[in-house]
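User: Study the chain.
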Amino acid sequence: MKLFYALITGLVFGIGISLSGMMDPAKVLNFFDLAGTWDPSLAFVMGGALIVTFVGYRLVWRRDAPLFEARFQIPTGTAIDRNLVGGSALFGIGWGIAGFCPGAAIPALGTGRWEVALFLLAVTAGFYLRRLLAPMQTAGAAT
């Protein structure tokens, strides 16, 4: 049942991304082009998502536990460190260059565009590269 609800959630997200036009990198890049062909539609999509999230969290936090887990898993880290800032900057730069974020790129795979597959390949390579480098950074910090 847990996988079924994950599938439904993914489908709803993908349909929302598709209907909003956010699978089109030109539409996203136009949002960042304030001096040229600025398109505010991404702001409306984000605003709608914030409203839904705000309401959803208010409802979810009334529960003692999630539907399919024994407890909520809430991040405990609060530090704003170089990894957080660097990762955020890298995400933003990649989004600004490619016009995709990973969440929108996954449903965009259905468009058959090779650029989407290349983008997701690069994101996946970045994830694995970070995993390989993390132990080296920890070892370097300990010495």
Summary: The longest helix spans residues 114-142. The chain is about 70% helix and 0% strand. Residues 2-142 form one domain. The radius of gyration is 18 Å.
